[in-house]
Amino acid sequence: MWQEGLRKITHNNKMNNVCVWTNLMKQTFASGKTEKLVHQCLLELGLPSEKNDVIEPLDFTFDKFYVLYHKLCPRNDIEELFQAITQGKADSINIDQFILFLNEKQRDPRLNEILYPLYDEKRAAEIIVTYEQDENARNE
Length: 140
Known about the structure:
Helix content: 55-70%
Domain Phosphoinositide phospholipase C beta 1-4-like EF-hand: 23-73
Radius of gyration: 21 Å
Protein name: Phosphoinositide phospholipase C beta 1-4-like EF-hand domain-containing protein
Order of helices and strands: HHHHHHHH
Distance between the termini: 48 Å
InterPro entries: EF-hand-dom_pair (IPR011992), PLCB1-4-like_EFh (IPR053945)
Shape: extended
Number of strands: 0
Structural class: mainly alpha
Strand content: under 5%
């Protein structure tokens, strides 16, 4: 049923027969970048970077994938948002700034405040404890 629903909304007949993995690879790694840039990024990471080279799975760690992903698909919007919150004066945000961000930027203002109350220090701290990986930043 899921597959049929997707096929109905896909107007390009050629796309109906493309492997999902192939599509994902094209979107993730190409993202409008030239092959030369991709090869250069691979070279900078110490990975095989010629056209027909093969990357050994053990050499392609998650950390290397993460760096490659950010080189090919930078998220400048996140950096701009962070700079707006801190006004460029800090390397991290405090809990008050985080609460303000959650309530003013992240939360849908149309939500009912009784059913979906505004974020407070307790809820913000729960989010930080759950998702912040750096223990020092979490404790700050």
